[in-house]
């Protein structure tokens, strides 16, 4: 059962889940396993792996980042819903937007939200295109992303979504500190300031993780984000 595994993994976390929330995580796992047979959502498919490396990993953000009640949060390049859907289960007050370039993933996430009884806005868009949409640009208290791209590239994808005063939270794996250092120019150019860096290990020797919190201190210049080809050809 996901509940027993997750209870153990998050026993030292700063959150408490209800019975209903554990049931939502169980259903989420079942849907992930079912849909993963017909489309590639995750390479991790066993209960303990999903509970630790997707659910507990996503929830770790709440140990380090204070997300005020009713904050708006964009999960950029959400994939199978990590960390966005996980955060929404734990914090139903969050106003969640899930952004992904692959429509079939959003079809899956729509089914997840329907069956779990949670609300989220689903946006089918490449990250750099969505950030130029005036309805999305600088419209969120938080943007989050988990292991999508290197930090300097990820900052160009994500910071344009964040309103001034809000924050972009990048969830990364081992050796992230070098990425954080090389991204300082990009962060500054895009209107951000690297505020905090956290380094920790997942429970049960689940691996090294890092979280960078980038505060949005001024508006992102209108020319950013650039087209994908330019981002790839010359990262900030």
TrEMBL record:
Record-listed S-adenosyl-L-methionine binding positions: 77, 82, 127-128, 146
Family: Belongs to the methyltransferase superfamily. RNA methyltransferase RsmG family.
Primary site of residence: cytoplasm
Role noted for this protein: Specifically methylates the N7 position of a guanine in 16S rRNA.
Entry's EC annotation: 2.1.1.-
Primary enzyme class: transferase
Compartment(s) of residence: Cytoplasm
Residue ranges crossing the lipid bilayer per the database entry: none
Top-rank taxon, per record: Bacteria
Organism: Ruminococcus intestinalis
UniProt keyword annotations, A-Z: Cytoplasm, Methyltransferase, rRNA processing, S-adenosyl-L-methionine, Transferase
Name of the featured protein: Ribosomal RNA small subunit methyltransferase G
């Amino acid at each position: 059962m996901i509940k027993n595994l997750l209870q153990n993994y998050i026993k030292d976390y700063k959150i408490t889940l209800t019975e209903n929330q554990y049931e939502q995580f169980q259903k989420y796992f079942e849907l992930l396993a079912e849909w993963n047979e017909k489309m590639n959502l995750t390479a991790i498919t066993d209960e303990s792996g999903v509970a630790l490396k997707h659910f507990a990993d996503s929830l770790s953000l709440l140990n380090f980042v204070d997300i005020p009640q009713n904050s708006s949060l964009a999960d950029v390049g959400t994939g199978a819903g990590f960390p966005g859907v996980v955060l929404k289960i734990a914090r139903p007050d969050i106003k969640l937007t899930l952004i992904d370039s692959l429509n079939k993933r959003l079809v899956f996430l729509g089914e997840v939200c329907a069956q779990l009884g949670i609300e989220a806005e689903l946006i089918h868009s490449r990250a750099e295109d969505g950030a130029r949409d005036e309805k999305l640009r600088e419209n969120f208290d938080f943007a989050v992303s988990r292991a999508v791209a290197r930090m300097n590239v990820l900052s160009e994808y994500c910071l344009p979504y964040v309103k001034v005063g809000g924050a972009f939270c990048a969830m990364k794996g081992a050796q992230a500190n070098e990425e954080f250092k090389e991204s300082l120019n990009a962060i500054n150019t895009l209107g951000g300031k690297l505020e905090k860096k956290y380094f920790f290990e997942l429970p049960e020797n689940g691996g090294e993780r890092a979280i960078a919190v980038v505060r949005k201190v001024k508006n992102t210049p209108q020319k950013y984000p650039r087209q994908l080809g330019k981002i790839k050809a010359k990262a900030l």
